[in-house]
Design brief:
single chain; 114 residues; mainly alpha; Rna Polymerase Sigma Factor, Chain: A; 0% strand
C-alpha cells in the first residue's frame, strides 16, 4: 500500500505541481537505481533505466494504483523475476525489448542465473 505522503505527491503532480513529482523522484531514486544496477550490472545502463522508469511513471501517473507501493521490488520479487527470465537468458535469448546483450546484465553476469 502506498504511504500517505506519496499519495499526496501523486495527487499534487496530477494537478500540475512539478515539484511534487520531483519529491517522488528524490524519495525513490536510490532504490530504483539500485534495482536497475542489480539487474543490469552497469552504472550508465542503470542510470538510463532508472531515468526511463521515472519518465514512464510520470507519463502514466493517471494510472497510479494507491493500493500498491511506489517502491522498487524487494529482493524476493527480484529473485522471482530473475527466475522467470533465467531459462531464456541461459539459452542466449533476450527479452523482446532488448536490442543487444549490451543491455543485458545477465550476459555479463551469468552467476545471477544460479
Amino acid at each position: 500500500m502506498s504511504d500517505p505522503t506519496t499519495l499526496e505527491w501523486v495527487n499534487a503532480a496530477l494537478e500540475g505541481n512539478q515539484d511534487a513529482f520531483a519529491d517522488i523522484v528524490t524519495a525513490y531514486q536510490d532504490s530504483v537505481y539500485n534495482l536497475c544496477y542489480r539487474m543490469l550490472g552497469e552504472r550508465s545502463e542503470a542510470e538510463d533505466a532508472a531515468q526511463e522508469a521515472f519518465l514512464r511513471a510520470y507519463l502514466n501517473l493517471t494510472r497510479y494504483d494507491a493500493a500498491r507501493s511506489f517502491k522498487a521490488l524487494d529482493k524476493g520479487e527480484v529473485a522471482q523475476l530473475l527466475a522467470k527470465t533465467a531459462p531464456v537468458a541461459a539459452k542466449g535469448e533476450f527479452e523482446l525489448y532488448k536490442t543487444s546483450n549490451n543491455f543485458d546484465g545477465t550476459a555479463h553476469n551469468p552467476q545471477w542465473l544460479g
